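> run fold Repeat-companion domain protein
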Amino acid sequence: MNPPEDLLQSALRSPEGSAALILADWYEEQGNLPASELIRCLVEHERLAQADASRPEIASDSGPHPALDDSRLAVADLAARVRLKIVQTQQLRGADALVAGNAQVPLAHLRDYLHGIPAYLEITDPRMFALALSQWLRDWPARILRAGPLRPSQLRGILRSPGAELLVGLSFTAQDTASETGLEVLGKFAQTVRLSRLGIHTRNWLDGHTDRLRQVTQATPLVELHLGTSEGLLPNPARLGNHGWGRELRTLRLRSAGGFTREQSPGSALDAATIANWGNPEDFPALESLHMQELTYNPDAIEGFAKPGHFPHLRRLILGAGNNRSIDWRPLGRLLSQGNLRSLELLAGYEWAPNALEAILSTTTADCRLQAIGLKSLTRGDRSLQALAAWPGLARIVDLDFGERATASEADWLALVQSPDFQPSRLNFSGADLPESVCLALGTALQSGQLTEFGWHENVSFSRARWTMWLHSGMLKQLRRLELRFPRGADATLAWVGRHADCPQLQEVVLASDAMDFSRLDVWLSDRFPKLWRITFAGSRANWPLPRRWLGRWQVTNAMEIIHPERMP
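> ok
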């Protein structure tokens, strides 16, 4: 039996926990205890998140790097147990996915559920659209549809399907025709399908598309907007901020995936006024996350971030540019100093500007709220790591993520790692090529065991000496999550790490290899890791199926994950 629609909508759209608890009571009265317990868990998670927001030592980042203290981990563990209970009902297949033919409806993640992002529906076979919409949207609170390429006629069929009026989110790649575009179809259904989340990827963004977007958003203000092109830059982006649709916008993502339009192209570059528009508290008072990738900027465009009083709630900023070398990045430091930004990520562009982070930190005060930094590209001679090591605010940075193009010099890496303020709790090297001296310094710097998450993507030959040193130093002693990717070492390397790792607190591990033979990985399922309850396999050409001897205490939740229910906290 489904809950009354008004009760469901109140719980989904209202940030008030009381509305969700009423829904939890309703599910309990109907005998659906897993659903009731899940909702109560989410309410508790939100309560803790709000409490954390008032504590200066803990970030309440809405991005992918939330600050996890013991209380939040406890709530996350509770949610995992609830998901397992739901899996064990006959209706669901998989720990976090409801399956209908080729359609999957993953359950909502913690905080986003109560903020209006319920479970989403992802369909790979267009023939499943009508069935999924009619059968599952009415029986389960899935309100977001993620689809691949859609012709206007296919999109029209979706929006005419029973249950389409329940959708609040839609993302797709528009395969526009000469006579009709996907946005034109959306505009015709704007009064019946009231979308608050919209993602559109198209070949080229035309001026007429912006007019159609305004028509789509007149019925319901957007909470989330993703716009992308496959061949050209989004033209005249200043027009995006002038239609009043941003009153409730929390996430804005703009991307041009097809090469870079240079500054000399008329009307294509972002200017300071446009960026400042997106931070205007009158037009975009709720913006929390801004992602601008592969766009083109005027040299002074970043000045738009520093306008006083703008971007009051921005917590996550991801920047990538095609004309990096001509940009003045220093104004971004003023935003960090005066705002609430928790996470900053600089993406690898076509020719990423050297010393960009140095320029940003030169105007950033040490008492800013920044706690996570991602550097996806570094070159030898770049002074960014030296600047980060010398920055007085380094001790506040708990999350560092270095991408595969982070190829700084040995001296620069050592300057950072040997700084007394280098004390991250989450550290990820996604293929960064570290000299052995830096690896040794890592073990020394982190030997107190404050590291709770570690990711290592090996892009050189595996070094047993390096890992032996790390393990003996105590650097990995308190790990709760470990991600290992060894494209050349394969499963033999993963097995060796498992045999020698002393990580009694380890709860989750991701194992990846180019050619994975599960028969060699038994050690990861042994009692060497008494708290390990989730293993995710991310390697290509995996040797499925899993060994039968694994399938006693361990359960397969989806194609790439197994869990140990008895070890779940």
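Residues 52-129, 131-142, 258-267 have pLDDT under 50 and may be disordered.
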